[in-house]
Amino acid sequence: MSSAVLRTSKPALGFASLVRLAGQSNGSQAGLTRTLLGSLSSCHPLHRRSWRHYSVRMDQRTGLLFRQLFESQSSTYTYLLADAQTREAVLIDPVLETVERDARLVEDLGLNLTIADPVNTHCHADHITGTGLLKKRLPGCHSAISKDSGATADIHLKEGDRVTFGKYSLEARATPGHTDGCMTFVLNDQSMAFTGDALLIRGCGRTDFQQGCASALYESVHKKIFTLPGECLVYPAHDYTGQSVSTVDEERRLNPRLTKSLEEFVKIMNNLNLPKPKQIDVAVPANLVCGIQNDHYCADCD
Predict the structure, then answer these.
(1) Looking at domain 64-270, which CATH architecture does it have?
(2) In this structure, are strands 192-196 and 64-71 parallel, antiparallel, or unpaired?
(3) Who's near 52: CB < 8 A, 6+ residues apart?
(4) Whole-prediction pTM value?
(5) What is the percentage of the chain residues whose pLDDT exceeds 70?
(6) Residue ranges per domain, the chain?
(7) Which of 60, 85, 156, 212 is deepest in the core (most CB within 10 A)?
């Protein structure tokens, strides 16, 4: 049975059968983006409302299927991408509380359950990843995260690796600064970038814990993300203001932190004085072992 696959300069041990050249697509992704909102409660801020958020994008010519999913407790976005023809899929940043929703969507869309591979942009501190539970719920899928994250996974990614699904692929770009293991995943035609916490909409991830370094984050964003085409869509791991997407051009011009000089940026980040994430003491230890502390679902967790 086929699987979403990874192209690396040195294939991960034990997963040689998963490695092949990434499919290339030169066509533009001029797809439709649509947001379907459920009923909203008026008594809570937008990012805390209990609504079901989907952003839908399908390129009829090339067959890219895309879903943007929202988890309201931690304001986390999960992204599902698939080749509509081969049904191969990748799931970015799944959340423990929404595993059943995500698995059901994979089934509803007729995707092959063994190829909905969960990929994490980094080791999260504000929520527990759904990776481990997804591996139990969808037997045969494989987890992936940066080798610099310190977390266990079936596949450890490094700069330049490609996660392939059908004729599409995601290029892994190391963007440390929020954490050592942060990665941005760029679609092979550079029309979409999944930036994790490195670059948010009009903001960025904090740098005061988990190996955070403000100067490293500044360099990562400017060299690895701001060098992408201006029209490239930016999809972050979180948003707290009700926004779902930005562009590289918008963030280069309008981001209130990253339009500053390096010195100004470091000063801003060193004086945020934010409270620590509510779930950090539980989330980080769990996320180091695929999100499940007592049950090992990853091949190399033992």
Answers:
(1) 4-Layer Sandwich (3.60)
(2) unpaired
(3) 36, 37, 38, 70
(4) 0.80
(5) 75
(6) 64-270
(7) 156
